Each structure stands twice: as C-alpha cells, then as structure tokens.
C-alpha cells in the first residue's frame, strides 16, 4: 500500500462563534426570544462545526450497509485532479485521516473521486463516483414518509427548526462489507470510510 506524502493539517475546522448563530425573525420574535434561543444553541455548540472544509463528528446509532450480492469487485482507475486543487485535496484527505473519518484501504473495490468547487469559490467538495457500485446495489425496501403527511404534521406545531447536517455522508457508520465496497481512489491512495 502506497500513499503520496500529505502535508500536516493544523486545524480541521474553524471555531463557531455566537455571531454565527442566526435564529428567529425580528418581525415575529422579540429580541429576548431570539437572544434566549441563541444562548441555548451556544450552550450546545460542541454539536456545531465551523465554516469551510469543516470535519463533522461521527453519527451514532446509524449503520449503513451495501448489498451487491455476489457481484465481482469493481476497481476503477484514479481520475486526474486539476493542479490548483491538489493541495486542497491533500489537506482534506489529511484532515479526514486525522479525524478518523477515513482510513487507508486494501479493498478490491475502488471508485474514483471528483473534486467540485464549493459555492464560495474557495473550498472544495470531495465527491465520489459510485455509479458502477450503485448499478450493482440491491435496493432496500424502506417506506419513505410522504411529503404531504409531513406537512400536515408540521401544520400542527407552534415552533419548527431546520438544521443542515454538514457533510452528513461522511459521518454515518458502515458495516465492514460497506466499507470495502465504498472504497475510493485518489491521487494519494485508496481509502475507505470508518
């Protein structure tokens, strides 16, 4: 197993500040209500992550499995990454390794990565092309809630909250089988999710 030398990453995420917490609507909520909610969220700031290429904590009590039956492993070639993204990709991979979100892999499976620029034009998003793996994956029968049912339930509440889970796909625990099948290849080596 070989890996290119990755530089050290000194900080995996920016700190969250009280000013980053935007809640309430001054047209609807009093200044006291907004302040109380902001302070309540601040007391739970350990659950929040900063901006940019932040690294989220692992999810608990959720396990992902990928069932491809007896399909033979698919190992695709690494795709070229534009030179201007090499350092950012290296930093991101090093951060994911340091946060123990990924590990080096010896899996016979390998899906290529695709680097995308975030909306801010500075940070990158690591995407993985799992189309071939998806074509082999057996679908799970799981009843998804209907949007109309959800909206009816929401109409009965006084307060609602919407949260955006940062990099949610990075934090879901996987079975050993799923880790091997979801391995991904980069210019820095083959990796799998923890």
TrEMBL record:
InterPro entries reported in the protein's UniProt record: DNA/RNA_pol_sf, Rev_trsase/Diguanyl_cyclase, Viral_Replic_Matur_Polypro
UniProt cross-references to Gene3D superfamilies, sorted A to Z: 3.30.70.270, HIV Type 1 Reverse Transcriptase, subunit A, domain 1
Protein name: Reverse transcriptase domain-containing protein
Organism of derivation: Phytophthora fragariae
């Amino acid at each position: 197993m070989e890996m290119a030398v990755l530089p050290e990453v000194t900080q995996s995420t920016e700190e969250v500040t009280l000013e980053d917490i935007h809640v309430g609507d001054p047209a609807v909520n009093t200044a006291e209500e907004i302040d109380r909610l902001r302070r309540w969220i601040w007391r739970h700031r350990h659950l929040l992550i900063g901006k940019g290429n932040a690294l989220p904590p692992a999810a608990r009590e959720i396990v992902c499995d990928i069932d491809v039956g007896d399909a033979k492993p698919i190992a695709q070639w690494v795709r070229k990454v534009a030179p201007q993204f090499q350092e950012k990709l290296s930093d991101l991979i090093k951060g994911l390794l340091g946060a123990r979100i990924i590990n080096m892999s010896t899996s016979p499976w390998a899906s290529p990565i695709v680097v995308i620029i975030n909306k801010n034009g500075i940070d990158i998003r690591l995407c993985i092309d799992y189309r071939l793996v998806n074509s082999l994956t057996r679908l799970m029968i799981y009843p998804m809630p209907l949007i109309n049912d959800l909206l009816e339930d929401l109409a009965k509440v006084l307060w609602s909250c919407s949260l955006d889970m940062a990099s949610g796909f990075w934090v879901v625990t996987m079975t050993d089988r799923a880790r091997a099948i979801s391995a991904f290849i980069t210019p820095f080596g083959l990796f799998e999710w923890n």
